[in-house]
Amino acid sequence: MKRFAPAALTGGLLSLSLALAACGDRPGAAPEAASEATPDLSGGPATASQAVSPSPDAAQTLPAVDEAAARTFVRDAGSTLEVLTFDRVGSVTKEGMVKGYAAPVYAVPVASGQTLKVAFKPSNTNLYFNISDAADQSGAAVFRGEVDGQAAELEASKDTTYVITPFQPRATARRGSEGGYSLTISRN
Fold it and tell me: What range does the domain containing 172 cover?
């Protein structure tokens, strides 16, 4: 048998519950809002709704891009620095050209514990990419595409700015060879 409580009675119980809660034994406690309790129209007791906290990713922000350090990786005439902006957890795809020694250089901030993934699709076999930590001014790459392949996956041990540099070997660059590429960069 289904129990039914008239709306007036249910509303009265809700008001009484709120009034009693406001007079509770917590000194200085503010009364709870009426929207925090949901009446059960079947005649049962009222239940409190559950608060939903934001996901940990939504509350965290990305580190600031170390643009000055990233600029030191722009070494050749015709090369440019582009700071990539996309969701903290998300991806972006960039297309570009390497012309001789000149190519775009990309800076991407990565928070401690995040994983940076980069997939490189060149138009010819003479194009590669490196990934460096902008804070390491030695020029050493943490990922070397010529040796390590066309897909990178790096976990940041600290907040950092990674610099992604597409390039071609010196032998083809000095001849002024050109080639296009597509880079898909993601953080998670």
Answer: 67-187
What is the pTM (predicted TM-score) of this model?
A: 0.68
What is the tens place of the pLDDT at every residue in 112-135? 999 999 999 999 999 999 999 999
Q: Where is 185: in which H helix or E strand?
A: strand 178-187
Whether 24 is in a domain gets the answer no
Q: Is the pLDDT of residue 141 over 60?
A: yes
Residue written as token pair 């297309």: 95
Q: Is residue 47 part of a domain?
A: no
Q: What is the rounded CA–CA span in Å between residue 159 and residue 53? A: 25
Give, in degrees to the nearest 5, the angle at Cα 132 between 65 and 70.
35
- The beta strand positions in 84-177, using DSSP E, are 90-99, 104-110, 115-122, 128-133, 143-144, 151-155, 160-167
